[in-house]
Amino acid sequence: MKGKAELKTAKLPVLNTQLPGPNAKDIIARDSRFISPSYTRSYPLVIKRGRGAMIEDVDGNIFLDFNAGVAVCSTGHSHPRVVEAIKRQVDDFIHISGTDYYYPHLPMLAGKLSELVPGNFEKKTHFGNSGAEAVEGAIKLAIYTTRRQRLIGFFGAFHGRTMGALSLTASKSRQRAGFGRQVLDVTHVPYANCYRCPYNLTRETCGAFETKGPHCARVIEDLLFKTTVPADECAAIIVEPIQGEGGYIVPPASFLQTLRRIADKYGALIIADEVQSGMGRTGRMFASEHFDFVPDIMSLAKGIASGIPLGATVARADIMRWGPGSHASTFGGNPVAIAASLATIELLEENLMGNAARMGEYLMEGLRDLMDKHQIIGDVRGKGLMIGIELVKDRATKEPHPDALLRVEIECFHRGLIIQGAGTSTIRLSPPLLIDQEQCDFAIKTLDEALSVVED
Hints:
Helices cover about 35% and strands about 15% of the residues. It is of the alpha/beta class. The protein folds into two domains: about 1-60, no CATH class; about 80-345, Aspartate Aminotransferase, domain 2 (3-Layer(aba) Sandwich). The strands form three sheets. A seven-stranded mixed beta sheet has the order 4-10-9-8-7-5-6, sandwiched between helices. Strands 11, 12, 13, 15 and 16 form a five-stranded antiparallel beta sheet that branches. Helix 4 (about 80-90) runs antiparallel to helix 11 and helix 5 (about 105-115) runs parallel beside helix 11. The model has no long low-confidence stretch (mean pLDDT about 95).
């Protein structure tokens, strides 16, 4: 078919119809009739197939994908080596529950993760099906191991929508609205957002450059442990090394290192949620590595298997000592998903992780040039191909500009570039890790055009 042939060779968008096209309109109408209205869609993209960094809709329009299924398609859409690994496994067997039976795939991937996850200690892994499940596993393990009930999280965090993970999520009020009292005992404190310091401090005045660490981390010890959260009841501090849904916020290294020190001092555990920031996205296998940060437990998903559902909770072996039946999953560690994950990791280690670092630097340079041109850009930040562009109404006041974010998303869509928002008014760039310089140039040019329209 013509569309399929074009998709195989396309590196940049090709738009053949008005958006949405007639086929897309029909599917959107049926979707509205049968699908839960709880889903969020910013613009009418109806995908038919994808290859690499390109996706084709049901009307034959081809788009450049700078979202990768929300940072999931790390190796691009339908990478041939991932597809081949999946096909080989499907020919052998598709499923048998790892909860009840043995198969070689489980220790194979768990052993690889033990090598990759930071920490010079033995590790064990529990497999689930998603990021929320990986977080649920982490918090259950922390409570089980410490015999403590309280948890500390951060405003702006997103850890999932299942009821336990939702107790930790503090990104948008609508994610909690209508679900009543939260399941877990969680106290939230502000994240290390140096662009919008909630304490009106600077890196120079907050302690970030001093051995004591920044105020936003020390508040746990200096305030919470002395007032509302007894230190000996705190099971864990759960943190995103780079905050994802909260706006792609990059903290100073001292923030994470101070959390580590406080946890060690009081016998609490550190859980790193690397669901979005892990698996090569930042130019290193895990964002924690940028900060010399070693957690006790790590939650992984999204890019771990190039789009096949898989989650993993990786922990110190001396922590993961719960007994049979304590925690399990029928589908977790599905052999097809593990085959996809092993192929994904090979590709990341061969060149995609390095490409993410190089293209991330190239994009950041171009985006900073855009910042000089467009006053609506308040901040550009990120690591590798995890980049946030925060939009503001005024640089002096830093007032967020959510309306501009939505308009930029739609303007980019109509030019063939797929992006998504994060936080209140941040453009999120999380493309497949195989993008090249020409595609980066198109993204920068398109963002420039979209921002110009929004600013007029």
